[in-house]
Amino acid sequence: MPNHTQLELQNFLPYRLSVLSNRASDAIAREYSQRFALSVTEWRVMAVLGRYPGLSANQVAQRTAMDKVAVSRAVAKLLESGRLLREFDEDDRRRSVLKLSEAGLAVYDQIVPLALGFERQLLADMDATERSLLFRLLDRLDELELRAETGNTHATA
Predict the structure, then answer these.
(1) In the prediction, which pLDDT does 117 show?
(2) Bridge partners of 54?
(3) Residue 113 Ramachandran class (φ > 0 left, ψ -120 to 50 alpha, else beta)
(4) What is the overall mean pLDDT for the chain?
(5) Percent of all residues in the chain with a pLDDT value above 70, rounded to a whole number
(6) Element (H, E) at 68
(7) C-alpha distances in Å from residue 95, one per residue of 63, 125, 142
(8) Is 107 exposed, middle or buried (0-12, 13-18, 19+ CB in 10 A)?
(9) Euclidean distance between CA atoms 146 and 109, whole angstroms
């Protein structure tokens, strides 16, 4: 049997980030899923539109790096449940923009404190310097990932 290159998952950054992200998302999702019958994707759509109302579904997918089909399904469910409103662009009737309805805003206003409380609990044992470093490193990783994705690995920051 030929030798195969081993992938040490515990040291492979994409794997580690994915596992951590899934665990953190699942922990908070248990709460809003039970209380509001929302999926993770639906909540992410609501979270983005709560902060940036008036985006198209494609813009939501871009901001979240989620699959367009998954976003489209989530948008359809949120429209059906009355948590989202769709308005058509007056200049281009083919383009629609989304925003939270009053019912959606009511849910958003209940979930945001839960999410922020979970984040506070998660980061509670980090001092301000560690938290600042963490977010600087995440920003840097985001920048480097975008650069790697476009194949521009030699550009300087």
Answers:
(1) 95
(2) none
(3) alpha
(4) 92
(5) 96
(6) helix 68-80
(7) 17, 46, 29
(8) buried
(9) 32
Whole-number Å distance between alpha carbons of 31 and 40: 11
Residue type, 22: N
pLDDT at 3 > cutoff 90 = no
3-state secondary structure of 156: coil
Backbone angles phi, psi at 55, to 5 degrees: -90, 155
How many whole angstroms separate alpha carbon 2 and alpha carbon 157? 41
Task: For residue 142, give the nearest of 48, 6, 13, 12 by alpha carbon.
Answer: 13
Q: How many CB atoms lie within 10 A of CB 32?
A: 20
Question: 52-81 burial, b if ≥16 CB within 10 A, otherwise e?
Answer: eeebbbebbbebbebeeebbeebbebbeeb
Sign of CA dihedral 113, 46, 56, 17: positive
Q: How do residues 28-59 score in pLDDT, each as one tens digit? A: 999 899 999 999 999 999 999 999 999 999 99
How do residues 74-97 score in pLDDT, each as one tens digit?
999 999 999 999 998 777 777 899
Give the number of other Cβ atoms within 10 Å of residue 101's Cβ. Answer: 17
